[in-house]
TrEMBL record, chain A:
This is DNA primase large subunit PriL. PANTHER family: DNA PRIMASE LARGE SUBUNIT. GO terms for molecular function: 4 iron, 4 sulfur cluster binding; DNA-directed RNA polymerase activity; metal ion binding. Belongs to the eukaryotic-type primase large subunit family. Residues 216-314 form the DNA primase large subunit C-terminal domain. GO terms for biological process: DNA replication initiation; DNA replication, synthesis of primer. Regulatory subunit of DNA primase, an RNA polymerase that catalyzes the synthesis of short RNA molecules used as primers for DNA polymerase during DNA replication. Stabilizes and modulates the activity of the small subunit, increasing the rate of DNA synthesis, and conferring RNA synthesis capability. The DNA polymerase activity may enable DNA primase to also catalyze primer extension after primer synthesis. May also play a role in DNA repair. Binds 1 [4Fe-4S] cluster.
Automatic annotation (TrEMBL), chain B:
InterPro entries: DNA_primase_S (IPR002755), DNA_primase_ssu_euk/arc (IPR014052), DNA_primase_ssu_PriS (IPR023639). This is DNA primase small subunit PriS. The gene is priS. Transmembrane segments: none annotated. GO terms for cellular component: DNA-directed RNA polymerase complex; primosome complex.
């Protein structure tokens, strides 16, 4: 059985009644206090660009999610989800290793088909290819899977990664479905405290905003915008995306110093490494100025975000997108 | 005039034969190319009666439906259509077959059939689809269409479909990745086939093949083997003593800076792919808004039917006999062949037609007219 220490129960978290009861209980104020404390700490750590992935219990997690919705700051939301994503992954990995029954129970409740027998875990191929996208590395390409009859045998690390991506998707769906007025109602008595948190966050965020220099952001292709957004949301970018981003920004004339500043936002930022990489790609170290890969390459690495963009349909290279837009009359 | 006469024959077909609408017709976008005019899209028909009425009235040259289901298939803007899901589609066509331009139509059809059979095997063995999920059609042109209808695929986005496409086309296998896989991986799917292929490769080759692969490096290779492998001429670099694959791949001739196994592997993988991949048109598979030929409609460039086929029957199926509409078998027609010589076997008859007028069965008249090598003579 899942204990209430393990924080994910999607039905529970999406119900306003549950959250209201938990947040305004007179007999047990602990979850509410914990949630507040947690959010304050994320904001504090955000200022220093540190991570804060503490395990929350079910009630505190639910309250925190609803409160985050009420605060309604994009960067705070994504930070919260990323922190909890990592917590989730650790916790689920623990269950997979030590408590198969709870693991199976979780999947069952999350409506995910997994088949476990004799320590072998199998999942349907469609689950695999739905959630492998943001995970880089050959271990996550379909062609290298142990697939038979529509099922794939995965190891513990793989299933934890895939479930993590599924978790993020589910939490985003719940987050988007939360009604802000309802949230305001639930946290009525905490309104001033929440306002303080929001103000504090906005202040910090303004300091952290990345500067793009003189280049024209509005003419960027969707892929580059997505990479920048991910960095702004403090996510780690796959290697090829970093490469593309740097070579792209370099090609359109951004300075190396500005670029390195942008990368300050990623969680594993390392000034020396980043400087080295940027200088390598831009030719200072290597003597070769690299240019961004073609769209087909990005596409086959799941790094193309063209969606319905009409210009993307006509071009083969991200730089072509920029040039076409730039010289087009607006 | 010409085109309109062809249209009359198509009308005759549509009047006498029902088309076969997909499930949830009212959620599908319908598109068509008329005999005079360009592509019309974003049509919606609520039921079989409506679409039958439309087809008999308009008599399209080409008729399509969307593999996607939409809440509002009739809205022009993609974003507002509200995509609900889509079948998974595979298009196998002569365009993607190597050397197709040197083959006859019948040879092309045979070659594409081979790839279609491979595809279906992978779909069943590896992906676990059953005959109920796999809907197979002769395209009416130069190939086959395979539609997967299954809850496992409807929601897949473009990226996920690309993974499937890459799998079918055996894209992205790389020597350095293989080295990092445990033996167990080679008991499944494509890697199992590759594993067997390598064993067979070494059972069946002689020195000449190695020679042709390595070219100028062959002598170095022989010297290298002399030094490290007691002068054996052929070494399976990929299998160690216990039969495990890909563990000793780094056979490297430091002096000459050559890694022989990489060249050999390149050769192996190329040939392995040739014999095992299914050449699908990948953009069709990854496009979740695709229009695809309507079952039992006529292909406007051949006059042949888009014909549903039982999987078991594919091997024996001959489109040039069996995709001819009955209504085209009943009449004869005089045509004028515009090229020097046209040759084809249709409906179990062999036709060799020189430049000039011929009286032929209507299906030959329609076919030659539709592909543009003849005019009708009235
Ligand atoms: S089509 Fe090219 S430019 Fe557009 S998003 Fe994809 S990779 Fe970027």
């Amino acid at each position: 059985m899942i204990t209430d220490k393990f924080f994910v129960d999607y039905d529970y978290v999406s119900s306003p009644e549950n959250i209201n009861t938990a947040a305004n209980s007179l007999s047990d104020r602990k979850p509410m206090l914990l949630a507040l404390e947690y959010i304050k700490n994320i904001v504090k750590k955000y200022a220093d660009k540190n991570r804060y992935n503490q395990v929350l219990d079910l009630k505190s997690f639910g309250i925190a999610l609803w409160m985050i919705k009420l605060i309604n700051q994009r960067n705070l939301t994504s930070r919260f989800i990323i922190e909890q994503r990592d917590v989730f992954e650790n916790e689920i990995l623990r269950l997979i290793k030590n408590d198969t029954e709870s693991f199976i129970d979780y999947c069952h409740r999350a409506k995910i088909n997994v088949f476990v027998s004799n320590n072998i875990i199998k999942i349907p191929f469609n689950f695999f290819i739905t959630y492998n996208k943001k995970i880089s590395g050959f271990k996550y390409r379909l062609i290298y899977q142990k697939m038979e009859n529509g099922l794939i045998i995965v190891d513990e690390g793989q299933i934890a990664h895939l479930l993590r991506e599924n978790f993020v998707e589910k939490i985003n769906i719940i987050y988007n479905s939360i009604n802000s007025d309802q949230a305001a109602q639930i946290f009525k008595s905490y309104q001033s405290e929440i306002n303080l948190i929001r103000d504090e966050f906005i202040k910090i965020n303004a300091k952290n905003e990345m500067k793009l220099g003189d280049v024209d952001f509005t003419k960027f292709p969707p892929c580059i915008i997505e990479y920048l957004n991910e960095i702004r949301d403090n996510q780690n970018l796959p290697h090829l995306a970093r490469f593309t981003l740097v070579s792209f920004l370099h090609s359109i004339g951004m300075s190396n110093a500005d670029m390195i500043n942008i990368f300050r936002n990623v969680p594993d930022f390392n000034e020396k490494m980043t400087t080295y990489q940027v200088e390598h790609i831009t030719g200072i170290i290597s003597g070769t100025e690299y240019s961004p890969p073609k769209c087909v390459t990005l596409r086959s690495n799941h790094l193309c975000y063209m969606d319905d963009d009409p210009l993307c349909r006509k071009i083969n290279h991200p730089l072509e997108y920029y040039k076409k837009k730039k010289f087009r009359k607006s | 005039m010409e085109k309109l006469e062809l249209r009359d024959y198509f009308r005759d077909y549509y009047v006498k034969n029902p088309i076969k609408p997909p499930d949830l017709l009212f959620q599908r976008e319908i598109g068509y190319i008329p005999f005079n005019g360009s592509m019309v899209r974003h049509r919606m028909y609520n039921n079989n009666i409506e679409i039958e009425r439309f087809v008999k009235k308009i008599v399209p040259r080409h008729l399509y439906y969307s593999s996607a289901y939409y809440r509002h298939p009739e809205i022009t803007r993609m974003q507002e259509k509200e995509w609900l899901g889509a079948e998974l589609i595979f298009d196998l066509d002569a365009d993607h077959i190597e050397g197709a331009n040197k083959m006859t139509y019948a040879q092309i059809l045979d070659e594409v059939k081979k790839h279609t059979l491979r595809l279906i095997n992978v779909l069943m063995d590896d992906f676990g689809f059953t005959e109920d999920n796999i809907h197979l059609y002769f395209s009416g042109g130069r190939g086959y269409h395979v539609h997967i209808e299954s809850d496992a695929v409807y929601q897949l986005d473009s990226d996920a479909r690309r993974e499937i496409g890459d799998y079918i086309r055996i894209e992205g296998i790389n020597i350095d990745d293989l080295k990092n896989l445990d033996d167990d991986f080679f008991n499944y799917g494509i890697l199992k086939k590759l594993n067997n292929y390598i064993s067979e490769f070494y059972e069946n080759i002689d020195e000449n093949i190695i020679k042709s692969i390595l070219g100028r490096n062959y002598n170095n290779y022989i010297n290298y083997l002399q030094k490290y492998f007691n002068g054996k001429k052929i070494i399976d670099f990929f299998t160690d003593k216990s039969g495990n694959k890909f563990k000793i791949m780094d056979s490297f001739d430091a002096k000459n800076k050559i890694t022989y196994n990489r060249d050999i592997f390149k050769y192996i993988i190329e040939n392995f792919k040739k014999g095992n991949l299914a050449e699908i048109d990948e953009p069709v598979t990854t496009d979740i808004h695709r229009l695809i030929r309507f079952p039992l409609s006529l292909h406007g460039k051949t006059g042949l039917m888009v014909k549903p086929l039982k999987i078991d029957y594919l091997r024996d199926f001959n489109p040039l006999n069996e995709a001819i509409p009955d209504v085209f078998k009943e009449k004869e027609k005089i045509i004028n062949i515009k090229i020097n010589k046209f040759e084809i076997a249709m409906n179990n008859e062999h036709f060799i037609l020189g430049n000039g007028e011929h009286k032929v069965p209507l299906y030959v008249a329609v076919f030659t007219n539709a592909i543009g090598v003849s005019d009708f003579v009235t």
